[in-house]
C-alpha cells in the first residue's frame, strides 16, 4: 500500500499540469493558477487511496483522482464569484485577480476538463463513473443554490442545513472514494460503502469547520474566531441553538445574530455565551462523532484486509486531528 | 425518413422538460426558462436527422440530440453575462431576469445536464461520444475566450477570425451531427464526414450572419442593419475590408470604425461605402458558398442512399434560405 505521503506526492506531481493546454492563456492560465494555489487535495488523495485498496498500482487511476480535484476547484472559482470572496488560500481569487468573466469561463473549462480526466478511466467502468459523477455534480450545484437561498431565509432548520452541506460538500467526498474504487475494479458493494463513508466524513468535517470557526485557535487556524457569526452565516451552531433555546433566548439569539452592531467582539461573546448555555459545542461534537463513527463502520465493512486500509485510516484521522 | 417538421416537433416535445428536476426552483427554473424561450433548435434537429440516416427510428437518440441543445443554451446563459446582453430571443436574459449569480449557477447545472443526457446513449458508443463532446466543449470555451480577446486587439486577421468562429460556433454543429450519427451506430468514416459538413456549415452560417447584420432587411430580421458596425465588432466584413483596402482607405476604415460619432446612420453608411468599394459583400458570399459547397460534398460522401438524405438537405438549405 502507498503511504499517505506517497499518495499526496503523486497528486502534487500531476496536478501541476492536469492536462490543460497552454493557449489561450487567458482561459487556461487562471485554471492553472487556482490549481497550483495549493489546498489539502483531500478528494484526489481519497480517490487514489480507495483505488489502492483494489489494485497494488493505482497510477492508472490518477486522472480519475485529478478529475475530483479539478471539479472541486471549478466550484471554488464559481462559488468565490457568488460569495464575493477576495482571497482563497492566501491568494487573490480568480475573479479578483482577473475579472468575473474570466472566472466564469475558466471555471467552465475546468468543469469540462474534469469530465475529460474522468473519461481517461478504463472504458469498462465509464458508465458507473459517469452516473456517479453526473449525479454528484448536479447535487453540488443544488447545494450551492440552497446555500444562497438560506442567506435570505430566517426559518432554516437543522435538517435542511445537513441536507445543504451534504450536497455542497459531502457528495463529492463520497464520489471521490467511489470513483477511485470503481476505476480500480472494485465491486458496487464495496464502492457504495466507500461512498457512504465519504458522505459521512463530509458532514462530520463540515460540522468540525463550524465548531473551529467559533472556537478555533486564532494562531493555529490563521483566522479570527467568530467569522461565521459576524457574517451571519447559517451554521450548525446557530441552528442548533435556535432549536434548543427557550423562547426569550431564541429571540435574543435572533436579535444579536442580525444586529448590525459594529462591536464584533461583543457580538461574538454574546453568541458564544448563549451557545454555552445550551451546550451547543458538545452537541456539535457529539454529532460529528456520530457521523465519524458511522463512516469508520462503513470503511470496516469494505471487503479488503484491514491492514490494507491503514493509510486510508491515517488520512481520515489526520483530517480530523484525532486518533481512530 | 422523418421529415424536417417531424424532427422539429419531436425536439420541441422533449425540450420542454429536458430532464431537469423541479427543486430547487432557483436553480432549475432559469434553466427551463431559457430552454423554453425558443430558438431554431438547429443542433438537436441536425443530431436527430443524422441519427435517422443510420436508423429508421431515431427516438432513442433524442437525449443525445437534447444534450447538444442544452449545452448550447448553457453557453448562451454564460456568454450573455460576459457580453452584458439584456435580451435573448425577445425575452430578458437569465442574468437580467434573475441576477449574475443565478446565471452562473444555472448555466453550470445545464452543462452538467448536457453530459447526463449524452450518457443516456448506448454504452457501446459512450467513449466516442464523450471524446467528441469533451473536445468540442473545450473548443467552445476557447472560442468565447478568443472572441473576448479580440475585443481589445486591433490586429486580428481573417484567419484568426475564422478560427474563432470555428471554435465558438461550428464545432458544436459538427459535434451534433457526429454524435447523432454515432449514437445511431454509424461508422467513424461517415460520422467524420458529417462532422466536417457541420463545421463548414457553421462557418458559412456565421459569415451569412455577418452579411445579414450589415445588409439584412430590417423588417425580415427584426433588427436594424449595421448593429455590428455600431458595436465595433470584428466581423468577416471589416476584417476582409482591412485586408483589401489601400493604405489610406484602411486608415479611414479604422478611424470610422472606432469613431465615437453619435450619428450611427452616417457611420454605417460610410462603412458600407468602403465595403462596396472593395466588393466585400461579394467576397463574403463567395466564401460562404465555398464552405457551403464543401459541406454538401461531405454530405454526399456519407454512405447512405442519397434519397435518405433529402430531409437533411432540406433543413440545411432552409437554414441558408437558398436552393441546393
Salient structural properties:
homodimer, 324 residues, mainly alpha, Farnesyl Diphosphate Synthase, 1% strand, globular
Describe this structure in words.
Two copies of one chain form a homodimer. Chain A is mainly α. The first copy, chain A, has one domain: Farnesyl Diphosphate Synthase, CATH 1.10.600.10. Chain A contains 16 helices and two strands. A two-stranded antiparallel sheet of chain A has the order 1-2. In chain A, helix 12 packs across helix 15 (280-301). Chain A starts with a helix and ends with a helix. The mean pLDDT of chain A is 94. Chains A and B meet through helix 4, helix 6 and helix 7 of A and helix 4, helix 6 and helix 7 of B.
SSE map:
The structure is a homodimer of 324-residue chains.
Chain A: H1 4-15, H2 25-35, H3 42-52, H4 62-82, E1 87-88, E2 91-92, H5 94-97, H6 100-118, H7 126-151, H8 158-183, H9 188-215, H10 218-221, H11 227-230, H12 236-244, H13 247-258, H14 264-277, H15 280-301, H16 310-320
Antiparallel strand pairs in A: 1-2
Amino acid at each position: 500500500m502507498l503511504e499517505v505521503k506517497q499518495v499526496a506526492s503523486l497528486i502534487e506531481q500531476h496536478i501541476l499540469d492536469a492536462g490543460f493546454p497552454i493557449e489561450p492563456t487567458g482561459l487556461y492560465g487562471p485554471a492553472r493558477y487556482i490549481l497550483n494555489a495549493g489546498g489539502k487535495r483531500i478528494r484526489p488523495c481519497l480517490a487514489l487511496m480507495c483505488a489502492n485498496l483494489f489494485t497494488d498500482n493505482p497510477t492508472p487511476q490518477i486522472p480519475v483522482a485529478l478529475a475530483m480535484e479539478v471539479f472541486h476547484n471549478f466550484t471554488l472559482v464559481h462559488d468565490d464569484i457568488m460569495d464575493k470572496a477576495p482571497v482563497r488560500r492566501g491568494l487573490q481569487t480568480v475573479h479578483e485577480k482577473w475579472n468575473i468573466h474570466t472566472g466564469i469561463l475558466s471555471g467552465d473549462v475546468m468543469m469540462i476538463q474534469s469530465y475529460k480526466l474522468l473519461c481517461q478511466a478504463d472504458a469498462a467502468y465509464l458508465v458507473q463513473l459517469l452516473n456517479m459523477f453526473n449525479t454528484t455534480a448536479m447535487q453540488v450545484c443544488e447545494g450551492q443554490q440552497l446555500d444562497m437561498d438560506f442567506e435570505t431565509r430566517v426559518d432554516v432548520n437543522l435538517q435542511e442545513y445537513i441536507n445543504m452541506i451534504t450536497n455542497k460538500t459531502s457528495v463529492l467526498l463520497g464520489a471521490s472514494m467511489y470513483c477511485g474504487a470503481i476505476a480500480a475494479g472494485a465491486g458496487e458493494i464495496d464502492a457504495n460503502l466507500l461512498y457512504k463513508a465519504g458522505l459521512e466524513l463530509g458532514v462530520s468535517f463540515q460540522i468540525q469547520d463550524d465548531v473551529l470557526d467559533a472556537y478555533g485557535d486564532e494562531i493555529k487556524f490563521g483566522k479570527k474566531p467568530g467569522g461565521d457569526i459576524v457574517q451571519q452565516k447559517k451554521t450548525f451552531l446557530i441552528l442548533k441553538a435556535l432549536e434548543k433555546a427557550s423562547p426569550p433566548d431564541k429571540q435574543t439569539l435572533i436579535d444579536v445574530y442580525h444586529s448590525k452592531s459594529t462591536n464584533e467582539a461583543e457580538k461574538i461573546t454574546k453568541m458564544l455565551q448563549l451557545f454555552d448555555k445550551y451546550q451547543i459545542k458538545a452537541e456539535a461534537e457529539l454529532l460529528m462523532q456520530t457521523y465519524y463513527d458511522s463512516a469508520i463502520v462503513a470503511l470496516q465493512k469494505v471487503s479488503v484486509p484491514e491492514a490494507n486500509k491503514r493509510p486510508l485510516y491515517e488520512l481520515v484521522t489526520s483530517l480530523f486531528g484525532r486518533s481512530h
